[in-house]
Amino acid sequence: MAMAASPLGAGAQHEMVLELGRRTGIPFAVSFVPWRRAMLLSVSTPRTAIFPLTRSPEREARYRWLAPLYRETFLFLSLKGSSFDAAAPERSKHLRIAILRGSLMVGAMQQQGYRVVEASSVAEALRLLQRGIVHAVVGNRDIFIALLRGQRAERFVMSAPVRETATWLGGSLDFTEGDAALLQGAMKQMTADGTYAKILRKYKLGAVQ
Questions:
Q1: Least crowded by CB within 10 Å, which of 56, 144, 167, 208?
Q2: Distance CA 72, CA 167 (A)
Q3: Among candidates 98, 81, 99, 97, which has minimal Cα distance to 89?
Q4: Would you call the peptide bond into 52 cis, given omega within 30 degrees of 0 as the criterion?
């Protein structure tokens, strides 16, 4: 979705944000910082945006929602033959599950009674799974598919989707409604002229709308 340095490219949502900036004349300069710091900067520093940010009722009033970027499908990933019941995850609430630190899914899973272990990255969560430290990982289906490419994917089991959300470019509140309208209009243009689909195909991802 967003990578600082990778032979694969900048990441789908990173490319989308740069293209939105190019089309609107808003000069986005992307920096990579720890997620909690990014969350703090985006609500305390003027003209600062954050992505990919999941839109939720808890966050609604804290940001100017500048443009939708992607639709996420969250599910459980476990190892085939493990004690985690991927067909009925609610039966495995006593087992440890890993979730990306700072994800809204941390609170959602804790509220449902799951034993959550926070990981610094999805790759780290998968390592915890393969080492038997956790019994399942909750995350974005498309990211799982990308990370498992080239591995023995048949060793893993994905559950049915447990939540669908949209990720956005979220800005500090000094961005104006006019800024948001301009960026959302540019996203509609990107969708209409095929640029959005081209970026998704490059990273083997699905569509947001």
A1: 56
A2: 7
A3: 97
A4: yes
